[in-house]
User: Fold Glycerophosphodiester phosphodiesterase from Hymenobacter nitidus.
Amino acid sequence: MATYSALTRPEVHGHRGCRGLFPENTLPAFQHAVALGVDVLEMDVVISADGQVVVSHEPWFSAAICRLPSGKPIPPEQELRYNLFQLSYDEIQRFDCGLTPHPRFPRQQNLAASKPLLRDVLRSVEAQAIHLNRAPLRYSIELKTEPGGDGIFHPDPTVFVPLVLAVLGEEQVLGRATLLSFDPRILRVARLVAPLIRLCLLVEDARPLTEHLDELGFIPQVFGPNYPLLTASLLQAVHAHGMQLVPWTVNGANMMRSLIQSGVTGITTDYPDVLLAVLDE
Assistant:
């Protein structure tokens, strides 16, 4: 991969804020990532029963990180019952998703936190960036859908995408946002209703790049593969198609160094502090 090295500084994308340091997709995680100096905040969004855009990786309350309003743990076999698409936001914010230690992230600082609205995240970090005299932040917003979940865990993409775009427009960050999805339907709808917005196709399987692009039907601005999929030939193919490359989720310093040498556009990480330290070497 060093063959393609440009040794340019990649963007630092804080995954779910900074999941390795604070509870994922919470205001404290995003605020800490901004304070560290990330270039891009990556987050996931779902839709509540009352049509609110909620920042959450799953469209339900994960038993691994969330607790019932009573403070009791959620039985893993019952977590799908706590479907955010069937709960109002008033109901959603009564659950805690910050106090439960995450076994994969021992450095994570746990504190009480609810799932925030996308609108509130944007307002909070935009104000913080101004206070810190930082350059305007950019946002990578992943829309969580799959065909079998339409009408069960999320609305149809033709409804989902406009709800997200409306919030981004109201908060005046459309020009600094990229919509991400594993679901080609989301990207097709977004391209149709908002032709100027940046789009990223997320991939976690080893199918050829041409197969993914043929299925999508167009070439997006950004390609986002799971980082173990990256090879010299894939990197060359992505560049040949004129796409930017932002692999995920890279947490080891040595892999970060390798990717920096390969000339990727950005690196998505749970530990932006580690990536920033590597970039300062």
Q: What stands out?
A: The CA atoms of residues 85 and 154 lie 6 Å apart. The domain at 2-279 is CATH 3.20.20.190 (TIM Barrel). The first helix runs from residue 27 to 36. The two ends are 20 Å apart (CA to CA).
